[in-house]
Write a structure and sequence with these properties.
Layout lengths: L17 E5 L6 H10 L6 E5 L8 E7 L2 E7 L5 E5 L13 E4 L4 E3 L5 E4 L4 E4 L19 E5 L2 E5 L5 H12 L11 E10 L3 H8 L5 H4 L1 H6 L25 H4 L25 H6 L2 E5 L3 E5 L4 E10 L2 E10 L11 H26 L6 E4 L4 H13 L16
Antiparallel strand pairs: 1-17, 2-11, 3-4, 3-6, 4-5, 7-8, 8-9, 10-11, 12-16, 13-14, 14-15, 15-16
Helix pairs in contact: 3-8, 3-9
Bound molecules: FE2/S2 (inorganic) cluster and fe (ii) ion.
FE2/S2 (inorganic) cluster binds next to loops.
């Protein structure tokens, strides 16, 4: 029935107030375990950069959704990834970080079981063959691996590049023109936030908080100062459809080209961007639940989310630049990093105040207002991943910060 439609017609917004997720879901340890199992261990998550495994026989090991994972580059250049756990008695195979194997073998440092880079067990060190043991039944356990934009994504539940494209291709398509795999890491900012991971994504998915929380950002992106993300969020947007001023269009303020102190871009624009990409000033790709990526005219910023517990998460922001850009005369890295670090700090503080209240909420659930349509879509996505109903999909595929 049309009357049951949660979304308004004719503009981006909820047709009626909706209940938020149960308040207990933001602090209950059992719910956290449930979400890790149903969502985080079954999603494509960013793991490292392809440049961390530059050629055959290189590897990168690290933690992902509470699991120990190793990715390797096989002879011939293909990538593979496994649980970084020996099938003998479960020792860690490779220490965390990147490195190069002496031979194309993963050798357990405990009793020297050796696996080829397809994960097959090929030797058992000094252990003799014994009745009831079959090498073929003890390969390293594989995980799904895919690449996008120079990132290696892992899915603990398995999956191929085609599966990755089916899951996230459309969400990341807005960044298709950015030469992401050629860019280099210029700066990393890591912080822990005392909030549940869902609080971060809810905050990301609305701009009602922008006027009160982000004064500088609202100056740079005037439409945010109206508490909305894009032109079509205004129920009355058609009567302003011809207005080109940033306050209506959603573009950066006049004279600004990028997220930076002063709004000025540095160096040549990144190659391959369209006029629309440049005019927009910022373009988002979102790969729930692990990362969002923002393309600017002169740099790219990626922000990853790592749950650390029911009420704690890590946020890692990485700035990417073309090779050599940092060495150009007059280039000021801090001018671009400072701005977004300030915004991230404001968001982190907002998330923590939300968490402190939620952790002792005297009600079952909060309420979503008209502008929080993407928060609602996110909640539907969470519920669908937990096996409770259908995902609503992103209403407009356009978020705020
Ligand atoms: S645990 Fe790996 S060889 Fe024993
Ligand atoms: Fe924000």
């Amino acid at each position: 029935m049309a009357g049951d439609q949660p979304f308004a017609s004719g503009f981006n917004g909820l047709a009626r107030a909706q209940a938020s997720l149960p308040a207990a879901w933001y602090s209950d340890p059992d719910q956290y375990v449930r979400e890790m199992a149903a969502i985080w261990t079954r999603s494509w998550l960013p793991f490292c950069r392809t440049g961390d495994l530059p050629d055959d026989g290189t590897y990168h090991a690290g933690e992902l959704a509470g699991r120990n994972i190793v990715a390797v580059r096989k002879p011939g250049g293909d990538l593979a990834a496994f649980h970084n756990v020996c099938r003998h008695r479960g020792a860690e195979m490779c220490a965390a970080g990147s490195g190069r194997l002496q031979r194309p073998l993963l050798v357990c440092p405990y009793h020297a079981w050796a696996y080829d880079l397809a994960g097959r067990l090929v030797a058992t060190g000094p252990a003799r063959a014994v009745e009831g043991f079959d090498r073929a039944r003890h390969p390293l356990l594989p995980v799904g691996i895919a690449t996008w934009g120079g990132f290696i994504f892992i899915n603990l539940a398995g999956g191929s590049q085609a599966d990755f494209e089916a899951a996230l291709g459309a969400e990341l398509a807005p960044l298709a023109n950015w030469p992401l795999d050629t860019l280099e890491v210029a700066h990393v900012d890591t912080r822990e936030i005392a909030c549940n991971w869902k609080v971060f994504w809810e905050n990301f998915n609305e701009c009602l908080h922008c006027p009160g929380i982000h004064p500088d950002l609202c100056d740079l992106v005037p439409i945010y100062g109206r508490g909305i993300m894009v032109r079509e969020d205004d129920p009355d947007w058609r009567s302003h459809a011809g207005e080109t001023a940033p306050r209506w269009s959603g573009a950066l303020r006049d004279g600004a080209a990028t997220w930076a102190d002063g709004g000025l871009a540095q160096g040549q624009p990144l190659p391959g961007l369209s006029e629309a990409d440049v005019a927009r000033g910022h373009t988002y790709g979102v790969a729930l639940p692990g990362i969002f990526v923002v393309g600017h005219v002169d740099y790219v910023r990626a922000v990853t989310v790592t749950p650390l517990g029911p009420q704690r998460m890590r946020l890692t922001a990485t700035w990417f630049l073309p090779p050599g850009r940092r060495d150009e005369p007059g280039f000021d890295l801090e001018r671009i990093t400072r701005f977004a670090i300030r915004v991230l700090g404001e968001d982190a503080a907002a998330c923590e105040l939300n968490q402190r209240g939620l952790a002792s909420a005297p009600f079952e659930a909060g309420t979503l207002m008209q502008e929080e349509y993407e928060v609602y879509a996110f909640h539907r996505w969470v519920r669908a991943r937990l096996g409770e109903g259908e995902a609503a999909g992103s209403r407009a595929g356009r978020r705020a910060r």
